[in-house]
């Protein structure tokens, strides 16, 4: 059984920054996992926003490239998502995922509003 727990969401003004965290626990070797962050806005599908492979290689869709940074700390079994220059359209629930699996966290709400 593997668990993912996200944290770090909240209400932030446009132009602000947030760092989301996702800690993985259970019967797994975190350093071998490819991890991803997704987001889902109300009434929309869940979209990939960042991916980090076990090698450290990162990938982003063009829509967030330059503002989102994914990183990992294998000693802490944690993956991070740094979001800068937040926009209202970034408002969504952000989910952590073990890439290619059905393992998801419960999500953390990010609301960008003045």
Structural overview:
The chain has 114 residues and is mainly β. It has no helices and ten strands. It has a six-stranded mixed beta sheet, with no helix packed on it. Strand 7 and strand 8 (78-83) form a beta hairpin. The chain starts with a strand and ends with a strand.
Q: Quick check: average pLDDT?
A: 96
Order of helices and strands: EEEEEEEEEE
Q: What share of the residues does DSSP label as strand, in percent?
A: over 45%
Query: Count of helices?
Result: 0
Strand order of the largest sheet: 2-10-9-4-5-6
Unreliable stretches covering 5 or more consecutive residues: none
Question: Which bin fits the share of residues in helices?
Answer: under 10%
User: Could you tell me how far the N terminus lies from the C terminus, measured between alpha carbons in angstroms?
Assistant: 40 Å
Which shape, going by the Cα principal axes? globular
| Rg computed from alpha carbons, rounded to a whole number of angstroms | 13 Å
As an assembly, this protein is single chain
| Structural class by SSE content | mainly beta
- Biggest β-sheet: count, sense, barrel? 6 strands, mixed
Number of strands: 10
Salient structural properties:
114 residues, mainly beta, four-stranded antiparallel β-sheet
